[in-house]
Amino acid sequence: TQLLEQSPQFLSIQEGENLTVYCNSSSVFSSLQWYRQEPGEGPVLLVTVVTGGEVKKLKRLTFQFGDARKDSSLHITAAQPGDTGLYLCAGVPQSWGAGTKLIIKP
Amino acid sequence: NAGVTQTPKFRILKIGQSMTLQCAQDMNHNYMYWYRQDPGMGLKLIYYSVGAGITDKGEVPNGYNVSRSTTEYFPLRLELAAPSQTSVYFCASSYPGEQFFGPGTRLTVL
Fold it and tell me: What is the per-residue pLDDT across A38-69, written as a single tens digit (0 to 9) for each?
């Protein structure tokens, strides 16, 4: 089983602050996905990164795939309460991180 | 499109009872998955299927069984429920690529 480690496990910050969440592994992945899960719901895909070094932006969210395709990061600029949720990274083929629980306080 | 639907939404079982969690998708996806998610944790793969008639074990298959007779349905069977099976169960489907998740079934075994 390929292991994906996410850090931090929990993050609580004030609205307007910036943050970065990390997803690390010793294994190489063909691609990596980031999902967000809100309480009582299933995860929803945010982005898929495929190429080493790739950077994708989704409004205030910036995703980066490491050059060696073993790690990824999610950076949120000027976090808002609507960003609150559990952020999960998933390596392709099948491997899931334990998630980062993010709380943005108004 | 309804996407991925799961029933029931909630269930309480007594130790030793059995039940089937239902999952259906209307997107004609070949791949389907069953996960469990324990409180504050990520997803653990129980079983998956790459097409009708084909199923394979995931990371935590013990105590569960699946079948996939059609593209649309992928039921998960719990035999002899144990307290360790208390969890939220998610069904997902994909083309492959992006996985689409159902709303989950919250199961408590007492």
Answer: 988 999 999 999 999 999 999 999 999 999 99
Longest dimension (CA), chain A: 39
Residue (of A94, A4, A91) closest to B49 by Cα position: A94
Chain B interface, mutation test: which of A1, A2, A94, A102, most B Cβ atoms within 10 Å? A94
The predicted structure's pLDDT at residue B96? 77
Out of B42, B90, B97, closest to residue A98 by CB: B42
Is B90 an 8 Å CB contact of chain A? Answer: yes
Distance CA A13, CA A15 (A): 7
The pLDDT tens digits of the residues spanning B33-85 come to 999 999 878 899 999 999 999 999 999 999 999 999 999 999 999 999 999 99
What is the per-residue burial (b if ≥16 Cβ within 10 Å, else e) of A67-99?
Answer: eebbbbbbbbeebeeebbbbbbbbbeebbbbbb
In A25-70, beta strands by DSSP E: 31-37, 44-49, 55-58, 61-65
| R_g over Cα of chain A | 13
Determine contact, residues A70/A24, Cβ cutoff 8 Å.
yes
Q: Which of these, A75, A73, A67, lies nearest to A29 by C-alpha position?
A: A67
